[in-house]
Write a structure and sequence with these properties.
Distance between the termini: 37 Å
Number of strands: 19
Number of helices: 2
Structural class: mainly beta
Order of helices and strands: HHEEEEEEEEEEEEEEEEEEE
């Protein structure tokens, strides 16, 4: 069934930015110790994988005896009242398949062909196009313990454009390939979060935008459900980070800007400032320093420092 999006949950994280060596010069304009670089909860908690059907088994041939693991505790939703009426044209003939599943619809040369309805012995129901005993074309598949899929099929698997509706209210609309979300798609969690962008084999992968229900959002690169590469993270109070990520944590070069205009330009590792960096207060006063594991270890009065990598702005 649809999984809860943990990103919607909020909690506080203690800031690790050490400003003791900068207080005297930057005064009240220096970042507050309680004002965290790490208050983006997403960098501490991993993204939930969107629910998928990887644990399900579905035979390509209607007569093939395959069924789902109905004892899987993760698959808790059941089909209710899915008895759909067939038109006279669709009613056609009835066939009992080798595994005990029942098909009713058009039959040509002893095989299901055309429009029909299939009652699988595991409780699933399919209604739509079938070619030579293979689910192919347009149809609706009602999983006994899972979502309802409505859309295009190829060789018994969802392929093309489709819509996946999960029992908890989560919905995915977009492209499928070989039975999995792949290409462009929009996923809306029942808790209010949403992601729109690229997918690969049921995972958020490529370019896309993730929005939280509390107003935060991330736009950028993803790798297997994690922020990875260049991206921009924004908070509802105006703070934002534009920089590089590795596996959901800031890593590489990035610029963090507070709502009042203060900013840190510099390098990060494992979600913390690490390497050379430049602090700028809202009046434009600068402090150049060196950070290790989030701690400022040295600083200087250098002002003519260009820390932003060449071509960085153009790559945004």
């Amino acid at each position: 069934m649809g999984q809860e999006c943990q990103k919607c949950k909020a909690y506080s994280v203690k800031e690790e930015f050490d400003i003791k060596n900068m207080d005297e010069e930057l005064g009240d304009e220096s970042p507050d110790v309680e004002q965290s670089f790490l208050d983006e909860e997403d960098e501490v908690k991993k993204h939930n994988r969107p629910p998928c059907l990887d644990n399900y088994k579905r035979g390509r041939m209607l007569g093939k005896e395959e069924c789902y693991d109905q004892n899987d505790p993760k698959l808790s939703a059941t089909i209710e009242n899915k008895e759909m009426a067939l038109t006279e044209e669709q009613r056609g003939e009835e066939i009992i398949l080798a595994d005990g599943s029942r098909y009713q619809g058009n039959v040509v040369d002893g095989k299901a062909n055309g429009k029909g309805k299939l009652w699988l012995n595991n409780g699933d129901i399919y209604e739509g196009d079938i070619i030579d005993n293979i689910i192919q074309g347009n149809g609706v598949y009602y999983y006994n313990r899972g979502p309802i899929y409505s859309g295009q099929f190829l060789n018994g698997k969802s392929e093309g454009i489709g819509k996946e509706m999960w029992p908890d209210g989560s919905i995915y609309e977009g492209q499928f390939k070989n039975g999995k979300k792949q290409g462009q798609g929009l996923y809306k969690w029942s808790q209010g979060c949403m992601y729109e962008g690229e997918w690969f084999e049921n995972m958020i992968h490529g370019q896309g935008r993730y929005e939280w229900s509390d107003g935060r959002c991330y736009q950028g690169n993803w790798n297997k459900n994690q922020m990875h590469g260049r991206g921009k993270y924004l908070w509802k109070d105006g703070k934002h980070y534009d920089g590089e990520y590795e596996y959901d944590k800031k890593c590489g070069f990035g610029i963090f800007v507070w709502a009042d205009g203060k900013q840190y330009q510099g390098y990060w590792f494992d979600g913390k400032q690490h390497g050379k960096g430049l602090m700028i207060n809202k009046e434009g006063k600068k402090k150049f320093g060196e950070w290790v594991n989030g701690k400022l270890i040295s600083c200087s009065e250098e002002t003519n420092v260009q820390i932003i990598p060449e071509g960085w702005i153009n790559k945004a």
